[in-house]
Specification:
Elements (H helix, E strand, L loop, with lengths): L1 E6 L3 H11 L5 E7 L2 H11 L3 E5 L7 H10 L7 E6 L5 H6 L4 E4 L4 H15 L4 E3 L15 E6 L2 E6 L5 E5 L2 E5 L4 E4 L3 H6 L6 E5 L2 E4 L3 E6 L5 E5 L4 E4 L4 H10 L1
Parallel strand pairs: 1-2, 1-3, 3-4, 4-5
Antiparallel strand pairs: 6-7, 7-8, 9-10, 9-13, 10-11, 12-13, 14-15, 15-16
Helix pairs in contact: 2-3
């Protein structure tokens, strides 16, 4: 369970965030604050793993709060997710290693993505291959399922369930019909483990399972979009367009 503190001087903003977090089973709210000073005291007392921090607050701003917390040797620095209505502070936020930057008003899906980033950092997931599922026992064979730790459990995920894989900074998001997993991995490493007859790299940050591809659309600007059977769309960059052509020729 991840303990969270909500820091925002606007009551309605805290209430909305509190409401959205009710659907997150891995998050337990251990306190709320409305000023910078109260936030520092609350983090010192509650020792949360994640701090949802507004930038514009009375007294000190969110960056001052982060600086004050990092300067105290007896405080374990929580993962900071900034929540703000101002987009001009995003670069500065990531310069101080904030996990995410939520621009108000944000959706439940966007909040969930931020929480997954925190979980990936606080509970790193390790990706491996199920040795028994390698074809022919070769180190270069393709895996039939991925095995990794996720939120206190070990997941055995058949690769046939994967619909698409996307890169997110130092992580990859593996998406199935029912859930998403954020792993500390690289696209190149995962691509080498997947059968190229089934999984196609369509962008430097996207891999799709061809079993779930509905169509490839040509856009007015000359770009292409891969549309999956569930309606999810992924961009196809021009450098990878030849791969689709090769499939059509073989087909």
């Amino acid at each position: 369970m991840i303990h969270a503190v909500l820091a925002d001087d606007e009551v309605l903003a805290r209430q909305k965030l509190h409401h959205l977090l009710r659907t997150e089973p891995d998050i337990e709210i251990v306190g709320e604050s409305s000023t910078a000073t109260d936030t520092i005291e609350l983090v010192r007392a509650a020792k949360p793993e994640i701090l949802f921090l507004d930038i514009k607050m009375p007294g000190m701003d969110g960056f001052d709060v982060a600086g004050a917390l990092s300067a105290e040797p007896d405080i374990t620095m929580p993962s900071i997710v900034f929540t703000t209505a101002y987009d001009q502070f995003a670069v500065r936020a990531f310069e101080i290693h904030a996990v995410d930057y939520l621009l108000k008003p944000f959706t439940a899906e966007r909040l969930h993505s931020a929480i997954e980033r925190v979980l990936a950092r606080t509970q790193p997931q390790e990706l491996s291959l199920d040795q028994s599922d390698r074809r022919g026992g070769s180190d270069n064979a393709f895996s039939k399922r991925l095995v990794f730790k996720s939120r206190g459990r070990i997941v055995f995920l058949p690769v046939s369930d994967i619909r698409w894989i996307g890169a997110e900074e130092n992580y990859v998001r593996i998406s199935t019909n029912t859930e998403n997993h954020l792993l500390r991995e690289t696209m190149a490493h995962i691509e080498r483990r997947l059968d190229p007859e089934v999984f196609l790299r369509v962008h430097r940050s996207s891999i799709v399972n061809l079993q779930y591809v509905k169509e490839v659309r040509s856009e007015l600007n000359g770009d292409f979009t891969v549309v999956l059977v569930d309606g999810h769309r992924l961009p196809m960059s021009r450098g990878y367009r030849s791969r689709i052509s090769d499939l059509l020729i073989r087909g």
